[in-house]
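Dear H.,

Thanks for agreeing to be a second pair of eyes. The structure we're designing against is below in token form, covering all 142 positions.
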């Protein structure tokens, strides 16, 4: 005769063992695009920067000019900037400077289409330009 307690214990253990692999899987994170930067110039590279465009905040509604509106709307000076331009944020993704004739790997994050600016130790720089690293993951600086 089968002991009911042992059977229920075995069933519970089997359920736990089958459920454990599903719990142990780590959530997938987006792939980071990693490129190789080669410095073929005579000066060390001090910064490889990603330039991100930040969205412009929505304009506030225009204040009411009705006579029964709150007095604070009568005292509003100026309004939202209608010609607001998007702001940019620059993030240096280079961990260590790249000496002349050397290469280094740089992580771009989740996007392979980025705007990159480069700065050199002698003060010269390469202006921000849009690059597509989806197929060719190399940036050669001449």
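And this is the sequence the design step returned. I haven't edited it by hand at all.
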């Amino acid at each position: 005769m089968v002991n009911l307690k042992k059977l229920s214990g075995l069933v519970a253990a089997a359920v736990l063992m089958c459920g454990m692999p599903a719990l142990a899987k780590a959530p997938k994170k987006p792939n980071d695009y990693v490129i190789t930067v080669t410095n073929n110039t005579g000066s060390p590279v001090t910064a490889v920067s990603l330039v991100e465009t930040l969205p412009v905040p929505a304009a506030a509604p225009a204040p009411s000019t009705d006579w029964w509106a709150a007095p604070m709307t009568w005292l509003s000076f100026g309004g939202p900037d209608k010609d607001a331009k998007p702001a940019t944020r620059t993030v240096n993704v280079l961990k260590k400077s790249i000496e002349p004739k050397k290469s280094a790997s740089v992580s771009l994050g989740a996007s392979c289409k980025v705007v990159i600016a480069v700065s050199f130790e002698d003060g010269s720089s390469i202006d921000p330009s849009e690059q597509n690293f989806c197929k060719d993951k190399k940036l050669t600086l001449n």
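Two observations from my side: The chain has a mean pLDDT of 78. The CA atoms of residues 16 and 23 lie 10 Å apart.

Warmly,
E.
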